[in-house]
Amino acid sequence: xxxxxxxxxxxxxxxxxxxxxxxxxxxxxxxxxxxxxxxxxxxxxxxxxxxxxxxxxxxxxxxxxxxxxxxxxxxxxxxxxxxxxxxxxxxxxxxxxxxxxxxxxxxxxxxxxxxxxxxxxxxxxxxxxxxxxxxxxxxxxxxxxxxxxxxxxxxxxxxxxxxxxxxxxxxxxxxxxxxxxxxxxxxxxxxxxxxxxxxxxxxxxxxxxxxxxxxxxxxxxxxxxxxxxxxxxxxxxxxxxxxxxxxxxxxxxxxxxxxxxxxxxxxxxxxxxxxxxxxxxxxxxxxxxxxxxxxxxxxxxxxxxxxxxxxxxxxxxxxxxxxxxxxxxxxxxxxxxxxxxxxxxxxxxxxxxxxxxxxxxxxxxxxxxxxxxxxxxxxxxxxxxxxxxxxxxxxxxxxxxxxxxxxxxxxxxxxxxxxxxxxxxxxxxxxxxxxxxxxxxxxxxxxxxxxxxxxxxxxxxxxxxxxxxx
Length: 470
Known about the structure:
This protein is α/β, with parallel strands linked by helices. The protein is built from 22 helices and 13 strands.
């Protein structure tokens, strides 16, 4: 309580000078109101380590993403799912992301290139720019000394070989092997591995053993040899397609010598394979398992495995099971798996819904380009996107996507430099005249330095704003 003299003095001063003391009320606000006033604090970024993707649409801040930097802190898994209809910028994003990642010396990338243009894969220009020859898997050239990958390569463990053989057969048959067929395959595989020591066993050896099983193999299980032969007949017919059918030449011989697994970029060109045929998932299964046992090593390198048309993997329960193991082990070995899919309905409504859900769960980063409204709602339900993000997906223009990085959801505009544009532009036949000439003085490194400077400036502004709020 104020003393009487102070009260009397204040009253006399107000009467004499006409001044009345006012009291400043305390400021009370909510977090949402504070964010509206101080915009830089409204949308926290992912840090400043990694590669620049572009800019956040609403704040204008530079958007940097790197699964290896974020893993363990903001990301529980380094795997990435890219969704969207054709023509909205998925290919440009993938290619610029890889080019920018390869500037780090400890990065290595494998691409399964399933789309073609002008008789070659989409990644052919980038491979040429980096002085790399794509590994082109083509049944036509394979018969004349082309590239071969051996499912029975000694670098693959015997357990891995048997699992891969089962997957090939189950994908081709459209159902799992029963116990008797599985037994016949196991017996044939064990005999081939034990009896052939002077060369690489090949699929022809398995087919021959299935057709003509050894008597001791049947006797060991107290089974009649005619039964073993009958059990393995369907299996032999399926594998015969890889040995003497339309896929002959790619997998029925020793692995081609000279495939450089230490190159910064390894491109498997699958563009000559019919994307809608049963050959594509079989091909991806063989390549995936072969890479798992020959390419991924426990060293300090960070590896990116990017798969175009990944629905061939996720939509097959048998192939998906192989890749689930690869993804689980990949986190320990520094592997980031990037799956590119047009529609989520391609994978969640099929026979492999359970396996697809498991793989999607491991993808902590999701990038969604424009989709139709009904597709966007379905995608939102499966991925758990916030309602505002689902509502804007159908309105997105090419190059802009919703990014969900373990719950941190932003709308991001992907930026392509003039130096990168000729390498990532895949619609030349339709819009070649609209592609501007590339100025020699424009370099991607200069653009990146400029963007990083903008990011530092933005961070300083953020810190200033935060101190003001405090």
